[in-house]
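Input sequence (740 aa), recorded before submission:
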Amino acid sequence: MSELFDAVDALVSSRSPLPPSAERKRLRQAHGLTLDEVAAALQVRRATVSGWEAGKTEPRPPERDAYARMLKQLAQLYPANTPVPSEDTAVPKTPAVPAVPAPPIAEPAKARTEPADPIPEPVSEDTALHPAAVPHSVAKTRTASRRPPARKAAPVGSPAGGVDARFENGPLAVVDVDADGQVLAYCVGGLVLDVPAKSIPALVEWTLKEAKLGAPKLSGPGKDADPLLVLTESALERYGLPVALTDEERLVGRIPEGHKVIKQLTRADWKLTKRGFGSWARIYRPAQGAERACVQLCIPSWDALDTRHWADAGQLPPADLARLLGTYAARVMTPRGSTAVTGLELMTALHPPTRASEPDADGRRHSEHNPGSLGKDPVDCAPCEAPDGHPLLADLPRFHHRTPAEVLVEEAYDWARPLTDAECLRPHLVGIDVNMAFAAGANGLTAGLGATTHVKNPVFDPKLPGSWLVDLSHVDLSRVKLAKDKWAELDAGLLPSPFTPKGEQPEGPAWYATPTVAYAVELGYDVTPIEAYVRHDNGRYLDGWYNRLRDAYLATMADLGVHADMPSADFLAAMDGYRRRDPQLAIVVSAIKATVKGSIGKLRERPRGEGWKPGQPWRALARPTWRPDIRAAVISRTRINMHRKIVKHAAFTGQYPVAVLSNCAVYASDWPSPLHFLPYRDGKPLPGGFKLGVNPGLVKWEGTQSVLWGEGVREQFNAPDLNLARYIKDGTVTDADTGE
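Predicted structure, token format:
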């Protein structure tokens, strides 16, 4: 009978009631317990307790009963209404890269009108340590009722200490109208300026002469960043601009040429670029010598800040928006348009097309090509690199479908396969995602800078960027080279081919970028190109671009509590809910990532209406940065980087992915966390394989679903090869692709 009682007791303890996950964390913190202390008492891992508190996993016997007992005792000591400190109050660790401080939101000060009610102090010490991290609700109240005393812009020539006197008020300002009708410019660091301008032309003049806005150039021969003004809805109304565009205006992306504000600018001798007065308008006068006279406008209510990348930034109070955009400007560059446009402008800012020559016999300097740049004139791509409709293909029949032997197709992975019987018996599908994958693919890449050279029957050179027509169908993934004199036997049927986006084995000659062909050689196979378009003028054009975006990403993640070189378990815990720690800085992270992907895509920008017809040139072709070959090389290298990790993982563990989408891979696993199934050798991550961490090229946990979910979704949609990596994050099956 006692055995029956023991069995009943065990059954009851296996269902010991537990409070909600948030309450578990509150009770632990109320008693001053750390995750490590609880984990040690229950003889489990720190990450296990963190998972219980996050609601991702539930404790099992015998730990469940002990855990429930602890929480019950704590609940008696600390009822639900007991205030407790937050673990987020801990001072963040020093980031592994030099972090640019996020511009802080203004501290409370007396308003110019009657004093308002006191602002409640933030409940978390985190906001006291970091004024920039004021919660949205507090910041909104502070902005509406209290702000720093407004002051006139400093007179031209005022000393600025160690700051560039020309730009002492920062790179940008958010222009708003307060309840008293006063026009104010909210700058970074909490500074608020009075704006005397009564019209858009006067606002431009004030910005250039008095506001002291802008940013120094990023490269020696480059140009200083033009000041950016962000106009709120109230500012638009004040200056005679529509709060929103009509459907027709939205379609063409600008207000009509006959609008009264454009007429005002014309009378004042100001000009607009060919794109007109749109959500990212540039207002300028032709440069006089080295002096530029240009102001950029950003109009959020005209959809300047794409919600896919900037979330609700356009709805933030002016001070918060200035802080958010100021952080991005300080770490990346002053926005020049969409994140894609800004990323492309960053490439040019770091490698300006021209520089000043050495003095000639008369002591004069002239403009000359800047080595390492793409120059000031566009170059033609190779015919195989040209997208459909390009002028180089004008002679092709209208509906001709080009074969792999006619067109270069280097795209990200979209591959999946059915689960094996053994994988179906495992409980979990775990997704891992490569951080900043396309940035990592650009790091150290040798890119073509100038025009192509067409060669027949070339000898392949892995150091020479270009496009190669070669047959790689003989590469057998069942036997690949891992290192010098070290080969591995693999199940090729469970692997995607590294040579095609869909993971299919090539069937004959096809065009590939240099990194793809080099990987075939790395795997141990000979290659014999038939022809190639190569670029002898080349260099590591994207290195500076990568370094700046990497540093921006790591510094912002460090501000959010996720640091480089964290132990794997600590990294996973830090990534859990990092966006909630400071939603505004989380938007900056999204914008940085979008800058990477968008600018790589814009290297092969397609026609955007404007009456374009196939065979005719389109506007983007006139840019030196229209370089489909560089885009192909980055994507090729990114896909190869992913395949190399997959192969290393398979050779060491015998585990193969069931789906790969761009930079996300899904594995069937006995454990719900990547911490358990990623291999370690001698306590260290597998060299060349997947490693958890925040740095570009390392991986984070994307999501976990059950194998039953995966099989159910495929059966529901009658799609045995449905790419589960697209939906692994939260299990919701939609047509939307977030790009994550």
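Checked by second reader. The CA atoms of residues 20 and 55 lie 8 Å apart.
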